[in-house]
Amino acid sequence: MPTDPEHRLDELMETPDPGFETVMSCVFGIEPHETRTYLVLLERPGSTIGELETPLERDRSTINRSLTTLYERGIVRRDRRLLDGGGYVYQYTAIALPEVKRMLHDALDAWTATVHGVIDDFDEE
Asked: What CATH number has the domain bearing residue 71?
């Protein structure tokens, strides 16, 4: 279940020519390394935390925190796989890029509508 991010749209507005990664980080309220985790996961669906250590060059606890944030934002899926010897491991898959782009557009459209509402509702007294 996605949580509402704490947008950093002020940061986005101050960046003259933001790249996709900056837009994603600001709109979803995530850190740049979390955005990178999402992009790496796009190329490696069904990965475990251990399988992401090498491509991300990060320790397991940092990757776990990143994946938890991405999962809470609704941009990665988490599936539990049972292990042969007992126990389980989580596998993570990035939500498809077209869906994430739609989510970004929706968030920016909602913010824009709010700002337009503030402008329209302002009355000089």
From this structure: 1.10.10.10
pTM for the full predicted model: 0.84
Range of the domain at 110: 9-117
> How many domains does the chain contain in total?
1
Tokens of residue 53, six digits: 């250590």
From first to last of the 125 residues of the chain, give the pLDDT tens digit.
455 567 777 777 787 888 899 999 989 999 999 999 999 999 999 999 999 999 999 999 999 999 999 999 999 999 999 989 989 999 999 999 999 999 999 988 988 898 899 899 998 76
Q: Residue 47 has which token pair? A: 């990965």
Which positions ≥6 away from 46 have C-beta within 8 Å? Answer: 79, 91, 92, 93
Phi, psi angles (nearest 5°) of residue 16: -60, -40
Q: Within a domain: residue 13?
A: yes
Judge whether 70 lies within some domain: yes
